[in-house]
Amino acid sequence: MVPDAALEQRVRAAAKMLRGTKRMRVTSKAGTDLTST
Amino acid sequence: MGWTDKPGTLAHWPGGLVVSFPKSKTVNGTLVMAAGDINLTFKRYLTAPIRMTLTDDYVTELVGEGADAEMMRRYLAAWGDREAYAVSHVGFGMNPRARYEALAMYDQRDSNGTELRAVAAISCSPPAPMNSPAATPRGISTCRSWHHDRARWHGRGARRGVAGRVWVMVSVVLARSACDEAIQSFFAASGLLRGACHRAALCADPLARNDESNYSRSSTGGRASPKCLSNPPAPRGAARERHRRHAGIIEKTRAGAHADAALFHVARNHFGRTITVAVQSAFKIAAGVIQNIATAQSMNSSSPMVA
Fold first, then answer.
1. Number of folded domains in chain B?
2. Looking at the domain assignment, is residue B167 inside a domain?
3. d(Cα B129, Cα B113) in Å, to the nearest integer?
């Protein structure tokens, strides 16, 4: 599992998205319903 | 996220994690770990569900039957510390090479479950696949839940339609520790962070060795001090050149705001062979085994087995 350059762009995009996020809500069929800021 | 090619970033092995450190007292709700989710503290795939209620960052109720729930209850209680019940961070993994079943392939002391933290679950629409868990850890007591969940993001990202609603596997790391504090202060960010890290690579904890065979047990035996390795500004000028010559594996950082932390980071591997060596070296340094960075790096250059 050596570094994969192709992954970098996607991860950076995800991190960028998180930076622009103020609140996160996580839900699941199992019953999770969690929020954080 | 696995790349430390510029100042202000942290290294992680394997790459592909995005985590956030929520604001204080903002994590609330219900967290259900279903059968098949993973508790990386015990390195177990759960066989029965566990339902946790979180109130202002702390697990206030933990319900479930069977060994998984019972062990979690006892383990968290054993510390006698409320912080054991605290959420550290929340994130997801994005590495398509990381495998869900990997934890089953190793004995408990052979792995720290690092690969599991980076497992990518289901890709979402553009531009980024939003997937699985992230995590970390080591601190006082950690308790990681890892499960398939759906996350809804609010903010600019959502407005852009980047990920209004995505499926993710979320890993919530419970327990605050010196490591957490160091990382949080390092980022000095309020609200959802923004970044990716991995404390198995950042802290002195036995590293997961689950992708190659040239594993030196002696280099990772036992738990070392829980220092964090935060990621500092890269050396400049002559110092930078010197570090580069030493394989670019580990760079000692400048003294700064976090001079009391273990200020090293794992640089990008230029040789395609020694990313693990870098981390092993970091462990030793954090444990105080290696006193001289130059010596350590010289050893690294000569043999990937000697950190």
1. 1
2. yes
3. 22
B7 located within any domain: no
What domain range includes position B58?
17-176
Tokens standing for residue B42? 């015990």
Yes or no, beta carbons of B2 and A8 under 8 Å apart: yes
Of B2, B148, B191, the CB nearest to A28: B148
> How far is residue B185's CA from residue B167's CA, in Å, rounded to a whole number?
30
CA–CA dist B171, B39 (Å, integer)? 10
Token pair 């192709």 is found at A6
Tell which of A8, A21, A25, A27 to mutate to test the B interface (max B CBs under 10 Å).
A21
Per the listing, tokens 């996160």 go with: A24
CB contact (8 A) between residue A18 and residue B160: no
The neighbour count for residue B219, using CB atoms within 10 Å, is 20
Dihedral over Cα of B115, B132, B251, B176: its sign? negative
pLDDT at B111 over 80: yes
HSE value, Cβ hemisphere, 13 Å, CA-based, for A11 = 34
| pLDDT 10s digits, B228-255 | 222 233 334 433 333 222 222 222 223 3
Chain B nearest-CA residue for A19: B194
| Residue B71 belongs to some domain of the structure | yes
Residue of A nearest to B35 (CA): A30
B33 — pLDDT class (breaks 50, 70, 90): confident
Adjacent-strand bridge partners of A24:
A36, B153
Instruction: Decide if B253 is inside a domain.
Output: no
- Residues with Cβ < 8 Å from B106, sequence gap 6 or more? B210
| A6 touches B at CB < 8 Å | no
